[in-house]
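Two quick folds needed for the group meeting slides. Do the first one here.
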Amino acid sequence: MQPTAKQPEVQRYTPVLSTMRGELEEARRLLAVAGFERLEIDLLVPMAPLFDIECALGAGDVAGAHGRLAELAELVPHVLTFARSARDVRRDLECLG
């Protein structure tokens, strides 16, 4: 593969995407523990935007990827907080009953 001018930009986003992927996978795991069904987890934890960002970067659309990344960066903390809360509620209900 020939180096391109855009590769440094792509490499710059790799750690960020890796962190977000890990956080979203953690949210999926927590929701599964909380008893959510697979379809609900798929709706609540958006993995598709990560794929879209990776595709945009692969196509050299750094500006488009950056915009999508900014949107996802705002969403991920809320998804993770919701997943942790759902797990905690499930745990509390199991303790009660």
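Then this one, please, same format:
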Amino acid sequence: MGLERKVETARVRASDTAPILWMLGHAGAGQSSLVAHLVHGWRAALRPAIEPATSTAEQFAHPEELPLIRFLLTTGLRPGETYDPSEDMAFMEAAPGLILVTVAAAELDHGGLRAALRTIRDAHPEWRVLVAQTRLHELYPEGAGHPTPYPFTPAVAVNPVPPALAAALGAQRAAFDGLADGFVPLDLTEGEGLREPHDYGLPQLLAAMQALAPELVPGLAPGPDPEEGIRQQVILPWAMAAAAADAPPLPLLGGVPAMAFQAAMVRAIARRYGLGSDAAIWAALIAGLGAGFLLRHAMSWMVRQVLKLAPFWGSAAVSAWTFAVTCGLGEAAIRICRDEAEDRRPTPAALRAAFRNGQRRGDALHDAGRGGAPY
């Protein structure tokens, strides 16, 4: 199997096994806007990646380079209509992560959603459900902005929340009692000058999602720091793929695919910075790290390939080393790409320091058993 095919096989395998975030809600409740915020993308950009999943839902995997999460989007539901969740539920059974229900704060008719959740809960009481109460501004007094600081707690705060909004949110929580594990009010109203921030409640939603389904967090938008996004959504998944490829107790056999995955990681990092040539990044890595530095790591790689033959611990040790080295290469690639994008060149000392920092992070993550968690 060619190296490019191995990379594509790894991507498909990751997509097939990534945990699923099932988005369930009526049309107009803000599902599309919420998805866009969760992945730092926008609907038009996401549309090419979306494909049919069932007769009532669509799906897409994210990030595209090596998926960490799958979205199942149940679309087109209308208040008053019945919805049979059995087909979407069967899809979710492959890798259940979280059901995220979107309900507009002013929505009164959610009997169909509650019936669907009751069916789902009866079949899978272990599945976690979070309700996002959206479009809060529809119940604000005219001209009012968002209540600040964010006042919502598990028991809806009445002051300074507008009374109509507090009553509506409380009624919804009572209606979904026993069907959900948490509620988060939020409002994503881009372009409306009176209502800032435009991602009101999103940090609280991400915190609730992390508490209920931590396995989803690496695939979600990491926040304002783009380098954290690269660490979570590019370096970690490719490091995991490289480590898995290098684990079989066969000297050299797993090392070549692992190097292909490392090359794919560097290519993905270069793309994140708008740089077209990953070959130039590799050349800068080799020149910056230095021949002596690379020779020592090449010798370590050869020794560890032989160590694979040691029963019980050999393959595990090699896999851990490959994971950490891949994290180091990724951190060095970030440093090169960042400086290249700013028309600068990192010093060899800075590049080696970035590599060692990434390797130490990789060691710590692997030792803590957090290979799927963010840095």
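Slide caption for protein two: The mean pLDDT is 80.
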